[in-house]
Amino acid sequence: MTAAASARPFTRRAVLADALVGQRTVVKDLLLVAAGITVVAALAQVEVPMWPVPITGQTLGVMLVAATLGFRRGTMAMLGYLALGLAGLPIFATFSGGIATIGKPSFGFIIGFVATAAVVGWLAERRWDRQPLLAVALFGAASLIPFAFGIPYMAAVLAALGTPVDLLGALGLGFVPFIVGGLVKWAIAAAIMPGAWFVHRNRAAIAAWLRRAVAAMRRFFGGRTA
Question: pTM for the complete prediction?
Answer without folding.
Answer: 0.88
